[in-house]
């Protein structure tokens, strides 16, 4: 009898222990399900997967961003993005990009840090003689270049541009297009702030040429000065810059820094036409040379991006040099508009009516995630940094998904010997 009671007691204890362990195991599974994302992300951040014993000591802090970070160990919990070209000048800074956190620095001692995930390059300073080599398979390269290839001819070549995983350039095909980097917004295009009535412009024509040209970067790759020089043989042009100079600005406006001065803009607004010639001929490379006359209510005579029609506010808002076979023909057309008020004003109807009809331009400005001369919005450098940060995290999370199925299999191996359940039973109960 005593023996029977002892067997019952031992059986009860075993059943209780088994039930307790089952409950504990289910809790472990639940907790692991909540934390497996953290473990796998951290593993992805390192150059090689963490060993099981290391995971407990390596705490993930992605959602625990504080106002200040004071210790070196804080950096070891986040992807490091190193500006190889010291554009920002900051030795170290954490940034919150949506739900993602990254550490940005210009300190090149981080080149071989196990948390470094991306190198950021400023295009003008990019040099093939100084690169963070050897490049590891988990190192992304990102390019920020708001200028034309004139500033760095190496970036013209496909072999160079394809080195970068993330780009922010003037091209619409860039990951972060900077095509409208000189345009504050559609409202400034509609604004009549600087616009001078046509009747007054006709009166000013007694002392002003129909065309104005303001350039001090002479003989660029576009060879614009050669074209303007020939154009001057067929029509009068007032040239205020150092290139083909024949007219003088007031002394206080001769500094290049005065190009955005209100008084300088008022002088340009008096003209009927502005020669808007880019320094390089590239798809989508559009600068203030186009946007400025459009904002002032002056008709731009544009020479530059072959895709310019994709960005004009309306189908009839600029005169395209590419439409004329010779400067002589362009001069003849401008003279015709100069003496025909109705035809001339047809190029300004979009502005007078406040009607921007280009859906691409409207959509781009609406969807743009950065601002120009707007302190209420991020600038394009901050947006570029966050774009790279987010894309780095996307790669980390993509690798994380590959690791998830492994966790469940490990748990089965742990549970089965204790509960003496078949794999099918485990799957059913879990």
From TrEMBL:
Species: Geospiza fortis (Medium ground-finch)
Membrane topology category: Single-pass type II membrane protein
Residues annotated as domain Fucosyltransferase N-terminal: 80-177
Reactions mediated catalytically: L-seryl-[protein] + GDP-beta-L-fucose = 3-O-(alpha-L-fucosyl)-L-seryl-[protein] + GDP + H(+); L-threonyl-[protein] + GDP-beta-L-fucose = 3-O-(alpha-L-fucosyl)-L-threonyl-[protein] + GDP + H(+)
Keyword list, A-Z: Glycoprotein, Glycosyltransferase, Membrane, Signal-anchor, Transferase, Transmembrane, Transmembrane helix
Domain Fucosyltransferase C-terminal: 210-397
Pfam families tied to this protein: Glyco_tran_10_N (PF17039), Glyco_transf_10 (PF00852)
InterPro entries: Alpha-1_3-FUT_met (IPR017176), Glyco_tran_10_C (IPR055270), Glyco_tran_10_N (IPR031481), Glyco_trans_10 (IPR001503), GT10-like_C_sf (IPR038577)
Family the entry assigns: Belongs to the glycosyltransferase 10 family.
SUPFAM superfamilies: UDP-Glycosyltransferase/glycogen phosphorylase
Protein name: Fucosyltransferase
Pathway participation: Protein modification; protein glycosylation
GO molecular function, one term: peptide-O-fucosyltransferase activity
Class of enzymatic activity (EC top level): transferase
Subcellular location field: Endoplasmic reticulum membrane
Annotated Gene Ontology cellular component terms: endoplasmic reticulum membrane; Golgi membrane
E.C. number: 2.4.1.-
